[in-house]
Write a structure and sequence with these properties.
Length: about 160
């Protein structure tokens, strides 16, 4: 079994239900150990789109990395995600953040996720459930990376407790 961390996001439809539905699909192949709170976050990159709900989860799986990627993509597809503009709105997004302590550089999969250390919507929920994890290639625990985000981290989190 390999310890994995995944980031989930949704900014279309019933966002919270979308996140829970994706978790239910993931449970078929992943033993889920921890799930962060749900955070409502401002959209990054393409800012003219609805706010996201984001969470991070930790689990254990027998899936190989490419099998895990296929599972993530099939969930996105089956839940109705359409290919639109890059970084555009989506029903659900399932990103592989970490796969054990492996570095993976394949045409369709890079692990650790290449943009995870710049994303408050990833680092803050990740620091909530695994503050001491060190992302391979960095020397710092996640809690420190979250604390060092440019806006102090929490500035991008909107109303995490009352997100609909
Ligand atoms: O790959 C992540 C999808 N995404 C998000 C997201 O999940 N949350 C926020 N706040 N902004 C985002 N921009 C993109 S693309």
């Amino acid at each position: 079994m390999t310890m994995v961390f995944l980031a989930l996001g949704s900014n279309l439809g019933d966002r919270k239900t979308n996140l829970y539905t994706a978790i239910d699909f993931l449970r078929r192949k992943i033993t889920i150990r921890r799930v962060s709170s749900i955070y409502e976050t401002e959209p990054a990159y393409v800012t003219d789109q609805p706010p996201f709900l984001n969470l991070v989860l930790q689990g254990e799986t027998d899936l190989k990395p490419m099998e895990l990627l296929r599972l993530a993509k099939s969930i996105e597809h089956d839940m109705g995600r359409k290919k639109t503009i890059r970084f555009g709105p989506r029903v659900v997004d399932v990103d592989i953040l970490l796969y054990g302590d492996e570095h993976i550089s394949a045409p369709l999969l890079t692990v650790p996720h290449p943009r995870m250390t710049e994303r408050a919507f990833v680092l803050i929920p990740l620091a909530e459930i695994a503050p001491d994890v060190v992302i391979p290639g960095t020397e710092k625990p996640v809690a420190l990376l979250a604390a060092q985000l440019p806006d102090g981290g929490l500035g991008k989190i909107l109303d995490p407790d009352n997100a609909d």
